[in-house]
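Slide 14.
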Amino acid sequence: MDQKINNTNRPPYGILAVLMVGAFIAFLNNTLLNIALPSIMVDLDIEASTVQWMTTGFMLVSGIMIPATAFLIEKFSVRRLFLVAMGLFTLGTIIAGSAHFFPLLLAGRMVQASGTAIMMPLLMNVMLISFPIEKRGTAMGMFGLILMAAPAIGPTLSGWIVEHYDWRMLFHFVTPIAATVLLLGFFLLKDKKGKVNIRLDYLSLLLSSIGFGGLLYGFSSAGDRGWDSPHVYATIAVGAISLVTFIVRQSKLDRPMLNFGVFKYPMFALSSSITMVLNMALFSGMLLIPIYVQTIRGISPMDAGLLMLPGALAMALMSPITGKLFDKFGGRVLAISGLTITVVTTYYFSQLTLETTYTHLVILNTIRMFGMSMVMMPVSTNGLNQLPVRFYPHGTAMNNTLNQVSGAIGTALLVTIMSTRTETHAANIAADAMKTAPAQPTEAVLAEMQQLIEMKAMLAGINDAFFVATFIAAIALILSFFIKRAKQAEDPVEEQQGEKNVTAKLV
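Slide 15: predicted structure.
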């Protein structure tokens, strides 16, 4: 990253505006798809364990790409990286919008992911070097307000589009906007970067891709194939071995592709742990609520989107407030308060019934999102604040990579729990139903019984998944008690250079 940005008195608001618009479109695209997943399942005749690849496939590519972004940020200019990222995202959107079978749709999503994977660390790095620590919480809060507008708009807009048009219109809607942002970036971004004499270590890139990719693919496959499948545990084992080799190699390189030295800073290590654990719990709501309201309750996509709207608005409106509170009080109080709310509301989501009212779901989801709004940005910012400037690209890349990995693990775990527990509950409910069924039930009665058994079994499976998510969120709550306000650590490399300069002057 060009350090000239850091040396100016005024933050580069023009660059930040273009980057934020690009990131907003990427976030909007993701939130549009969540409500559409049940419609995609019906239209393409696929199961929940298959359609989850719309999310986990995106994570897979991101997990492979993001570790390299630290190198890319150091090597290339903001303009060049943004144009490549937005170009890939636009191309992926066009491919997905023309898909009439699942593999092509998934391919489009993966191309989108390759662009988004570059864009988010790039934006975070520009934010970090543009604002001093004492103003960073407020800046991140405003950044959160803009980005969280996407989850506020996305579900409702998606519900309306899916209800009145084909789900492919979601991609057709985004395509012209993405193309416009790409053109704006081409004409408005003018920053240049001097030649940087660093080279990509291709062996590190290979090990990183196999390591993170193997873990993501293995955990994602578990939702479809089961944890006892050789395909699953062999892939996870290969990924784990490659990742360990990658970490060892990075520790021996003078200019590592992804510097694991960031974990020597305790607040960064703690913040990464908390956000990873919380991410696993977060996906329970994103994944399970749309399935519950549409598949079990028969609520329309439009109403399902409106259900999510107040929670997303609460999260967006709280972002600047949370940012200012973070600057004043630090992250510990916010994290403990927010995670307590998250744990309690996640538990209440594990008590859903076939008669749970729409209003109850709206209020519960809104309170849950309110709690999460107090955690993610403050905890991440507090951890990054402890890093020396030289580590910013590596810190943002590491956070984004770990978020993708934990998200994939959480999704696979919760889908597996929902699927296996649904089968168990279906067998038990069917056995109980046969005891009270008529001696010779008609086909109509059997069909009605079968439908009711499937609905009750899936509901019980979803409740079990939410119950596990409650314990996952509780782990994050326990970790939050160890948070301390971070101060930027001294860079040992800069100290050594300063000592050399002093010695040279004395001589």
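Speaker note: The chain has 19 helices and no strands.
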